Amino acid sequence: MATNPSLTLSGKVAIITGASKGIGKASAVALARLGATVVINYSSDEQAAQDAVAEVKKLGTGEARSVRADTSTISGVQSLVKQTIDAYAKIDVLIANAGIMPMKDLEHTTEADFDRTFALNVKGPYFLAQAAAPHMSRGSHIIFTSTTLCAASTVMPGYLLYNSTKGAIEQMTRVMSKDLGRKGILVNAVAPGPTGTDLFFRGKSEEMLKTIAGFNPQGRIGTPEEIAETFVFLAQSTWVSGQVLRANGGMA
Q: Which Gene3D superfamilies does UniProt cross-reference here (predicted)?
């Protein structure tokens, strides 16, 4: 990814949840390329997290460490923040990227599905922001992750549960920006369109992928690196807050 050499995140400390793969990993690398120290949170795949840390360190511009924590739980959130503060004494950028996308329409959603999805996609980011905010100074950034499907003109019934969580994220972004804005903390969200991660490709036929790509005026699916550019932009902004930036190549 091309970067502007006049821009820097040197001396900044960033937490990225779900950062061992996909958009989270690409964002960690992009921030580190500008000099940030990145805390790569993961829940289960230790090898992928170690590989992400190694990729960052290979850049020679930023530092990285991995922290295992289940950010769907309060104890996991608190552990992630504590380990970061113990190591670096502050948090400048918080990217709440971890999430799941179960395909569940109304009929097929169980209480367990609902609780699990809201725990990781909504409760985790909410209380992570609560735990991190006391350690963030004026000019710091909280960046949530939504989805372009919240604004798409058509959406399949199977996205009901997932979109419900992302609707909550967009309201958290809007109102939390007023709340934490009093401390000078900027709160935004990135809403990716279809993005070529391992999770996205899993279970999809070539025909389905071509159909999805056809929804975009550019006729293709975005890359994790392109979504990471949006996180980098928001992590450097000084006057953008309360916004949902839809990174989708013009799809919606």
A: NAD(P)-binding Rossmann-like Domain (3.40.50.720)
